[in-house]
Amino acid sequence: MLFTPVNGEGVVAAxxxxxxxxxxxxxxxxxxxxxxxxxxxxNQIAALPGLSRPSVTSGLRDLILARLVTKQRNGLYRINAxxxxxxxxxxxxxxxxxxPVEDRLDDPEFVTRFHQAVEHYREQLALERRxxxxxx
Length: 136
Hints:
Layout: H1 9-14, H2 19-31, E1 37-39, H3 42-47, H4 53-65, E2 69-73, E3 76-79, H5 89-98, H6 110-135
Antiparallel strand pairs: 1-3, 2-3
Helix pairs in contact: 2-4
C-alpha cells in the first residue's frame, strides 16, 4: 500500500485541465513506483486508457505545464511529489520537504501559476506561427 501525502484532487480539479490530461495523470499514477517515478513510453500510455498518441502528447504537455508531471527523459516521468504514492508517511514528508514550494499543490498560487504558464505557452505558439507565416 502506498501513502499519498495530500488530497490534491481539489487543486487538480481547479486547474480545469482537458480530459486527456486527467486520463493520462490517472494512468501514470496507477503505474507509478513509490515516489512517483513512471517508466512508460507515450505509446504504452496511450494503449492503457485507449487514448490516441496525439491525445497523450497533449495531455502530457498540459500536465507538465501544470507541474503535475515532469519529463526526465523520453519514457521516464515523475509525478509531482504531493500526488505521488510513498511507502510511508515519513517518506512522503521527506519528498515534500525537499521540493520547491512553488511546485506544492498546497501553495496558494499554484493554480494561478498554471494559468499563467498556459497563457505563456499559447503566446509562444502564436509567435511561432507568425514567424512561419512571414517566412512562407
